[in-house]
């Protein structure tokens, strides 16, 4: 017997069945796999697969979570927002945080950038006026090999 699973991602509702048959979501499928492979939301990156690097971060009910270690079946009734969901769905205008990353060159190759932006958004959701120390602590789980986190901190501070 298969069970139905409803996901709300970036304001859209998706219904799947859970099971082992073709087209169903296996109990072991992670959220990052569902987002990328089933919904085509490739902004969320898979890197370490262990929840340690922050590249796969998405917002779940406003809080950053590692989608590589979150089972899709655990997301029933939760509000999921990916990097694609931060922009205005009508106008396509980027979120002010995304704009700040662009204007402060807070990225280089861009692979980890979506996860860092999501983590920063989570920080701002919790506290709209964080201190530099709170920003640094909130981003401590995000790893980037290309840039200094100085640009990232400056980008986040610029929208406070």
From TrEMBL:
It comes from the Bacteria. Residues 3-86 form the 2Fe-2S ferredoxin-type domain. InterPro entries: 2Fe-2S-bd, 2Fe-2S-bd_dom_sf, 2Fe-2S_ferredoxin-like_sf, 2Fe-2S_ferredoxin-type, Beta-grasp_dom_sf, Diverse_Oxidoreductases. Keywords: 2Fe-2S, Iron, Iron-sulfur, Metal-binding, Oxidoreductase. This is (2Fe-2S)-binding protein.
């Amino acid at each position: 017997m298969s069970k139905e699973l409803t996901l709300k991602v970036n304001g859209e509702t998706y219904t799947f069945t859970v099971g082992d048959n073709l087209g169903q979501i296996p109990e072991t499928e992670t959220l990052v796999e569902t987002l990328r492979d089933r919904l085509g939301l490739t902004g969320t990156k898979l890197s370490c697969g262990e929840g340690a690097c922050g590249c796969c971060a998405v917002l779940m009910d406003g809080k950053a979570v590692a989608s590589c270690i979150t089972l899709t079946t655990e997301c029933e009734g939760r509000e999921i927002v990916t990097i694609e969901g931060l922009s205005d769905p009508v106008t396509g205008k980027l979120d002010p945080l995304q704009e700040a990353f662009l204007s402060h060159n807070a990225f280089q190759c861009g692979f980890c950038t979506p996860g860092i932006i999501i983590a920063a958004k989570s920080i701002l959701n919790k506290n709209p006026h964080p201190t530099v120390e709170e920003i640094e602590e909130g981003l401590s789980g995000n790893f980037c090999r290309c840039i200094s986190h100085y640009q990232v901190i400056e980008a986040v501070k610029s929208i406070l």
